[in-house]
């Protein structure tokens, strides 16, 4: 088991480009913080810190998913992997969850950057924040799995990955609560784990949470559902690929 | 059929026509790549929608701030910045020249590498300017600060100049991404964040110190401030347009030298594997 | 480095070192040779011998660390631009073209990059497409092309500027036998036109049939250079005689003939090597006399020369 995990890790670590998003995205907090300073609204710093964390986490997840698929496709690994579809699927799941999980670091980063710039960005209830953030990371990994399945299915993975960032920042309510969005997309935000989780994360950071248990339970359910959907989609696509219904090169 | 004696070495003396032709075909090859990247559906509902969401997202920061002026400032700034951010696409796409193995032939052909690569990536420039114009027309409307259509001419002129300036910076950075392909994401993302931080997209340009100095040599700064002037009804401030054009020229010179000299030298020293 | 007279390419004491933290590598080590105008020189050597490095230096893509080379009298370091206008480069493999353009569009683009004006470029491209048998599918995207067709587009590009020196690095690597033979014909035609060719290849058959001279290079050093026949004679490689229907009791008689070395005489077949014409005559005579007439005589080939002169590094490592 350890050799298996270390192989997966080596696969990931051999692509230093995989961490580009994670290295870059937290710098967006500078953009937000300087804007707050220019507008003289330091009170909003905790919110934009979380915004940056959300952006980093989501962008990193999408980037990882599409990069892993693209790389495997280029190296012909997908084709090899189909010889052992279950094992390959697990390899994907482990690599994607493992790599996406690293985005927790971004949470610490944006808080520290905020503190260094003289903002009070340390969350009120740290434990709850970290717990919610961990659930969000898992959900993001589930979404990333879904994207990787799409990526095996369609060829234009790059443009797909590009299109999947900002619309979801809006939908996830990373700056304004998602009910700021027009009425027709409200149903979407209700079943989107990120919208739920992000409200909870913001409340936890601000230190005024009510109904912790029920909100956590709903979030947990949505996250598990997202993971399940992602893993199943990948399984279905890999099965289709094995049956020759999906072109593996192009 | 091949007259060796007459044909050999009898090359046209005027290279201008050949350069134009190369540029034309370069644009065509790039356009094909672009077309291969998108269908019209994926362009409209994937790419354009994403960019509009991006502008909307940053504008919503203005809503959070609760100030009408901040909302307008952010919406206009981020919409116009798309012209530049689109143009930065050339940093990553140029790496494809190495992957497809065409770089070696480009270098052997003794052609102008700058012209060839600038033509190949020109679609990014067009993409940036077009999406910025669309965003500028739509997003401010969505956050309640409509932009008047009466200014279309000067606005397009400014967007094109900003895009051009950013495109030249992108080409200069492309020299680096050709040498270190793994760095391409860092390069274009770094340039993007630099613009958002310093060029007056999110907040007014610093008026002294290092940030101000950086702002003056960055694309977008001068053009965007002129564009804000146009929108506030002050008419086109030619000085701003001229300054933006100078920035474009400056980065163009850097890109020209780095692609035609440092890239060739790097290849010949063996520090850039081509072919 | 001037005054190379009739030589199209002159390589003098050429060395190239690649520095690396672990182990600096001498990819080329003091290589000297000439290629005359109109000559086809084959460059033979195992993977990693330094063939591609040599090609890159001659085409100005890489600088030598010492020594130098001239192409039509132009120094590859100092007169790089003049050299670039003189050489046409063809690299093996499928990369190097814009896959979403048609062959015609690719070639027009490269013609323009080679400095041909629009009209000349258009005419030249049509001419080459015709010449290389690509006209029928010239307006399809090259990503739909077969390996052999792609390689013809590559060749067309190398020929666009009517280069005086054509440099090809393993052009037929991975081609099927028909495509490779067709490719050889195209190169022969180029030679007939008077083009000088430097051809790096692993294909001994191709080298033997196309090249006026071959150079054996190994570990960055030039091991031998000369016309295939001369090299084979000099190397004193022996012709092989194979006779079917042989009977073992005849072996002593065959061994008695001077200059015949029996390699094997098992079952019904004799395999022997002969050192010269007299020995060959005597052996054939003896065989025919006892009623054996299913005999073949194989001259030594470049493959044997290659095997004899170039050590099997991979094998040694084990
Ligand atoms: N850019 C480079 N950096 C380091 N070593 C190189 C480089 N290019 C070639 N080499 C080394 O030089 C030697 C010769 O390589 P090459 O010329 O490609 O051989 P060939 O074409 O005959 O197979 C090899 O050992 C190779 O590893
Ligand atoms: Mg080679």
TrEMBL record, chain A:
Its main location: membrane. Pfam families: ABC2_membrane (PF01061). Residues 18-202 form the ABC-2 type transporter transmembrane domain. One of its GO terms (molecular function) is ABC-type transporter activity. InterPro entries: ABC2_TM (IPR013525), Nod_factor_ABC_transporter (IPR051784). The keyword Ribonucleoprotein does not apply. The keyword rRNA processing does not apply. It is found in: Membrane. Keywords: Membrane, Transmembrane, Transmembrane helix. Signal peptide: none annotated. It is a multi-pass membrane protein. The chain crosses the membrane at residues 12-32, 44-65, 96-119, 125-152, 164-181, 216-238. GO terms for cellular component: membrane. This is ABC-2 type transporter transmembrane domain-containing protein. It comes from Pilimelia terevasa.
TrEMBL record, chain B:
GO terms for cellular component: membrane. Pfam families: ABC2_membrane. Residues 39-230 form the ABC-2 type transporter transmembrane domain. InterPro entries: ABC2_TM. It comes from the Bacteria. It is found in: Membrane. One of its GO terms (molecular function) is ABC-type transporter activity. Keywords: Membrane, Transmembrane, Transmembrane helix. It is a multi-pass membrane protein. The chain crosses the membrane at residues 12-31, 43-66, 72-91, 103-123, 129-148, 155-177, 183-201, 237-259. This is ABC-2 type transporter transmembrane domain-containing protein. It comes from Pilimelia terevasa.
Automatic annotation (TrEMBL), chain C:
The keyword Nucleotide-binding applies. Residues 9-244 form the ABC transporter domain. Keywords: Antibiotic resistance, ATP-binding, Nucleotide-binding, Transport. It is a peripheral membrane protein. SMART domains: AAA. Belongs to the ABC transporter superfamily. GO terms for molecular function: ATP binding; ATP hydrolysis activity. GO terms for cellular component: plasma membrane. This is ABC transporter ATP-binding protein. PROSITE patterns: ABC_TRANSPORTER_2. GO terms for biological process: response to antibiotic. Pfam families: ABC_tran. The keyword ATP-binding applies.
């Amino acid at each position: 088991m350890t050799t298996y995990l270390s192989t997966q890790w080596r696969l990931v670590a051999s692509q230093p480009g995989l961490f580009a998003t994670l290295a870059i995205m937290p710098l967006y907090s500078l953009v937000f913080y300087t804007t707050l300073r220019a507008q003289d609204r330091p009170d909003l710093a905790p919110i934009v810190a979380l915004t940056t964390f959300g952006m980093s986490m989501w962008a990193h997840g999408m980037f990882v998913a599409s990069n892993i698929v693209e790389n495997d496709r280029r190296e012909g690994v997908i084709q090899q992997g189909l010889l052992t579809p279950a094992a390959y699927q697990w390899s994907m799941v482990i690599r994607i969850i493992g790599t996406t999980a690293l985005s927790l670091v971004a949470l610490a980063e944006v808080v520290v950057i905020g503190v260094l710039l003289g903002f009070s960005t340390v969350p009120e209830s740290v434990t709850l924040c970290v717990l919610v953030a961990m659930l969000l990371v898992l959900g993001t990994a589930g979404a990333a799995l879904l994207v990787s399945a799409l990526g095996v299915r369609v060829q234009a993975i790059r443009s797909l990955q590009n299109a999947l960032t900002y619309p979801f920042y809006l939908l996830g309510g990373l700056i304004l609560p998602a009910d700021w969005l027009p009425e027709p997309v409200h149903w979407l935000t209700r079943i989107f784990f990120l919208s739920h989780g992000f409200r909870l994360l913001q409340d936890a950071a601000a230190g005024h949470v009510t109904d912790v248990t029920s909100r956590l339970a709903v979030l947990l359910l949505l996250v598990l559902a997202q993971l399940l959907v992602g893993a199943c989609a990948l399984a279905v696509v890999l099965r289709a690929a094995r049956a020759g219904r999906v072109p593996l090169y192009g | 059929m091949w007259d060796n004696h007459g044909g050999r070495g009898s090359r046209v003396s005027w290279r201008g026509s050949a350069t134009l032709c190369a540029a034309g075909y370069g644009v065509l090859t790039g356009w094909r790549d672009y077309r291969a990247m998108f269908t019209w559906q994926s362009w409209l509902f994937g790419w354009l929608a994403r960019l509009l969401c991006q502008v909307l997202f940053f504008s919503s920061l203005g809503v959070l701030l609760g100030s009408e002026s901040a909302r307008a400032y952010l919406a206009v700034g981020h919409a116009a910045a798309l012209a530049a951010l689109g143009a930065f696409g050339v940093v990553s796409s140029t790496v494809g020249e190495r992957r497809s193995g065409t770089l070696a032939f480009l270098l052997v052909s003794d052609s102008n590498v700058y012209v060839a690569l600038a033509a190949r990536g020109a679609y990014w420039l067009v993409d940036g300017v077009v999406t910025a114009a669309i965003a500028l027309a739509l997003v401010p409307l969505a956050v309640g600060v409509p932009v008047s259509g009466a200014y279309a001419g000067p606005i397009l002129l400014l967007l094109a100049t900003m895009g051009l300036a950013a495109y030249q910076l992108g080409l200069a950075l492309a020299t680096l991404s050709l040498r270190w392909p793994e760095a391409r994401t860092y390069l274009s993302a770094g340039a993007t964040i630099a613009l958002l931080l310093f060029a007056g997209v999110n907040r007014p340009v610093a008026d002294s110190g290092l940030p101000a100095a950086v702002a003056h040599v960055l694309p977008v700064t001068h053009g965007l401030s002129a564009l804000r002037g146009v929108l506030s009804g002050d008419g086109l401030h030619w000085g701003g347009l001229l300054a933006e054009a100078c920035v474009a020229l400056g980065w163009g010179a850097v890109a020209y030298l780095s692609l035609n000299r440092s890239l060739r030298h790097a290849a010949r020293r063996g520090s850039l594997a081509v072919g | 480095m001037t005054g190379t007279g009739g030589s199209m390419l002159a390589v003098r004491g050429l060395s190239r070192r690649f520095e690396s933290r672990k182990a600096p590598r001498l990819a080329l080590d003091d290589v000297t040779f000439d290629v005359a105008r109109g000559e086809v020189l084959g460059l033979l050597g195992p993977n990693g011998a330094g063939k591609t490095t040599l090609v890159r230096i001659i085409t100005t893509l890489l600088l030598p660390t010492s020594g130098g080379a001239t192409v039509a009298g132009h120094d590859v370091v100092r007169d790089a631009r003049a050299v670039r206008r003189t050489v046409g480069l063809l690299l093996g493999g499928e990369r190097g073209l814009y896959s979403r353009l048609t062959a015609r569009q690719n070639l027009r683009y490269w013609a323009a990059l080679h400095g041909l004006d629009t009209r000349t470029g258009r005419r030249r491209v049509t001419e080459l497409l015709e010449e290389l048998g690509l006209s029928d599918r010239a307006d399809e995207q090259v990503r739909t092309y077969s390996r052999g067709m792609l390689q013809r587009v590559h060749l067309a590009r190398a020929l666009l500027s009517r280069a005086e020196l054509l440099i090809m690095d393993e052009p037929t690597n991975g081609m099927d036998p028909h495509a490779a033979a067709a490719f050889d014909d195209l190169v022969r035609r180029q030679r007939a036109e008077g083009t000088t060719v430097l051809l790096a290849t692993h294909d001994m058959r191709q080298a033997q049939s196309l090249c006026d001279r071959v150079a054996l290079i190994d570990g960055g050093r030039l091991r031998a250079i000369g016309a295939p026949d001369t090299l084979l004679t000099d190397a004193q490689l022996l012709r092989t005689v194979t006779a079917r229907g042989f009977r073992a009791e005849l072996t002593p008689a065959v061994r008695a003939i001077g200059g015949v070395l029996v390699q094997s005489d098992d079952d019904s077949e004799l395999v022997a090597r002969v050192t010269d014409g007299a020995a060959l005559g005597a052996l054939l005579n003896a065989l025919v006399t006892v009623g054996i007439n299913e005999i073949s005589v194989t001259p030594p080939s470049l493959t044997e020369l290659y095997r004899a002169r170039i050590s099997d590094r991979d094998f040694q490592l084990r």
